[in-house]
Design goal:
With 322 residues, the protein is of the alpha/beta class. The protein is built from ten helices and nine strands.
Length: 322
């Protein structure tokens, strides 16, 4: 009986390996088409303005940021919304998939209400930025161009922050890791990521089958789990516990992999898009506790790692965005 079972298992395993081999071979044969379709599905760009967008606040200034690609100048469209208070911190806002800046305004407004000046960019392929299909490489390039512009708008590193939502959280982590390279102090006060994930392959498995080896054929990696350990600045990780698109366990894994000082804020009742509103007071408290503005003296001890949980608050629903 045991011998028959072993033979059966061997036959089934051979079939599974054969199917996987054919899949990989087909992927290699049509890799260009597969990679393009993968990018389309990853970014899911919705053209035009969001249906709920009713115009920019009066104080927002629009601008184009140059990006040089193979010697050719391209442009990234951006909004700059200065805070009303002198000496306020400034933040680079990196959005997720689907919606351009017109679909992000309510979250940008919330950050502005928290007291930040906000520079928000549309990656190439989104909104009024240069046309084309985005990729992991191009959004990283655009984030770095946006960061260069932020350093011109806010020269003080102690007043500069990076914020990323959903897929933008992966872009923000890449930027923070890139800024953390080298021996000198990172040119940013801190990193804030919300509703984000560990790797794109993990999201693909979470939405399909956990056993699928999708990492073998995916060209867009967005490996935040490997990069967040390289970040040498305080990190605030925020996630709604009712997020149906990106499980909160991914933020817990990112928090565990990050260096100190760090904080994990779990918003009870928060979804993929509304955690900043549902837990606004706890969000504000977490920003103040971890980043303490103005920052502590260089000799002060770093903040202790902390996990906070925001209580449920009933708020009006907000439009969905990536």
């Amino acid at each position: 009986m045991t011998g028959r079972l072993v033979m059966w298992l061997r036959e089934r395993w051979v079939k599974v390996v054969a199917v996987l081999g054919v899949t990989v071979a087909l992927a290699a044969a049509g890799c260009a088409q597969l990679a393009e379709k993968e990018r389309e599905l990853t970014f899911r760009v919705v053209p035009g303005d969001a249906s709920w967008y009713s115009g920019l606040p009066q104080d927002v200034r629009e601008m184009d940021i140059p990006v040089t690609v193979e010697g050719k100048m391209q442009r990234v469209h951006a909004w700059w919304w200065p805070a009303g208070q002198a000496g306020a911190p400034a933040l680079l806002y990196l959005h997720g998939s689907r919606w351009n800046l017109t679909g992000q305004l309510y979250r940008i407004e919330q950050l502005h209400e928290f007291g930040y000046s906000v520079l928000a960019i549309d990656y190439r392929g989104f909104g009024r930025s240069e046309a084309g299909l985005p990729s992991e490489e191009t959004v990283y390039e655009d984030a770095r161009a946006g960061w260069t512009r932020l350093t011109e708008l806010e020269p003080d590193p102690a007043r500069r922050f990076i914020y990323g939502h959903s897929l933008g959280g992966a872009v923000a982590i890449d930027l923070a890791a890139w800024l953390s390279a080298g021996d000198g102090p990172p040119p940013a006060r801190g990193l804030i990521v919300e509703s984000t994930f560990t790797t794109l392959a993990d999201i693909a498995r979470a939405l399909s089958y956990e056993w699928l080896p999708v990492q073998w054929i995916m060209s867009q990696k967005f490996d935040s789990l490997a990069k967040i350990a390289q970040v040498r600045m305080p990190v605030l990780v925020v996630h709604g516990e009712s997020d149906r698109y990106v499980p909160a366990r991914f933020s817990k894994m990112l928090y565990a992999a990050a260096r100190d000082p760090k904080q994990l804020l779990l918003i009870e009742g928060g979804t993929h898009n509304n955690s900043m509103r549902v837990g606004s007071s706890e969000y504000r408290d977490a920003l103040s506790a971890l980043f303490e503005f103005p920052p502590k003296a260089a000799s002060a001890a770093p903040a202790e790692p902390h996990v906070a949980r925001a209580p449920l608050r009933r708020r009006a629903a907000t439009p969905a965005s990536g």
